[in-house]
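BUG: 3D viewer hangs when loading the predicted structure for this chain

Environment: internal workstation, default settings.
Expected: structure renders.
Actual: progress bar stalls at 90%.

Input used:
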Amino acid sequence: MNAGKGLIVPVCLLGIWEIAANVSGSLSDNVVPPSTVLRALWGMFSSGILLDKTAQTLASAGMGLVYGAVLGLAGGLVLGLSPRVARLLDAPIELLRPMPSVALIPLAMMAFGFGIHMESAVVGFATFWPILILVQGAVASVDRRLIEVADVLQLGYMARVLKIVLPSVAPRLIVALRLAIGIALVVAVTVEIVANPYGLGYGLVTAQVALKPAEMFGYLLWVGVLGWALNLILVKTQRRLMAGLGLSSPQEGLPS
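Structure tokens produced before the viewer hung:
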């Protein structure tokens, strides 16, 4: 229901755009009405081109997200549980974290060449940092009484993480994953626009060079719909998981 309400404003804006385009009749050839964009989008979908490029982008974004999530989760757990290690690595982290992920494209191209591995490496770098920081903060904020219970029970490191820490920070981990999914998609499309001749980003550039504005806007619209759908899926998964664990969904200022 909330997802349907969220579509009201975009649909109204598209309707205003369509009416203005048909009434005025003075739009540039490079600015097409939404009805033309939707026809072009359907044509790309019917031909299979859109699905093929979507699969390429999602494969790269998904692989990079797995890299970033696994390394970010592991690093965040270590930093959150060990203030001494966090202080030791604070300077290197703050030096590397502000680095734009797209600045690593030349290095990634030298290491992997064109293709999914180059793109996923850049996506992995981009998604690693928000997950690392959010997981570190979540772990560091775990109730100290729970840690004391783990000490009394003489739990080992892995038992402490699995039985005490992860259940306590699960809601915030899902928030971190929601943020990372959006970043992964944005960075993947950006890499394809800049350097990698694959996926939705490359299709967008190709349409622009070929002077096909309807297809270009179609790719833009599809990327937005794709991001919205991925977020919606994760929100539904989050609510079911939290209900299964008997926890309330986190309200971190993120729209659902």
